[in-house]
Amino acid sequence: MTMVHPFGVLGLLLLKKTAAYQTYKALSAYGWPRVYRRLMEQNRVLTPKAAQPVVADAVKSALRSPTTAYRGLQTPEVRRFVDRLSGIRPLAMPGALRSLVELAESLLKPFGKCKT
Length: 116
Description:
Layout: H1 6-30, H2 32-46, H3 52-64, H4 69-73, H5 76-86, H6 95-108
Helix pairs in contact: 1-6, 2-3, 5-6
């Protein structure tokens, strides 16, 4: 039986929180209205007309209340939007917005199976 060191787990959790906090600080410095505007521009370009309101509502609710972001990422329209958004060249997107997309991508990746 393999034992996991508690300080290792604590370190990983701290690293995760630090990365999320740095993403938050970068987006705050860039400006939340600008983040929303850039995401809506990409929504109009990348999402079919019928699915645009669903994606817009998910983005708006995620920016207003980050705890609802994961629920919004579960809809197929939003998943497709994030997949298309992640395919854009990194230089075509502000760094703060790129961090947000990478965070959304990491939330969409399935977790590995735990061994018991």
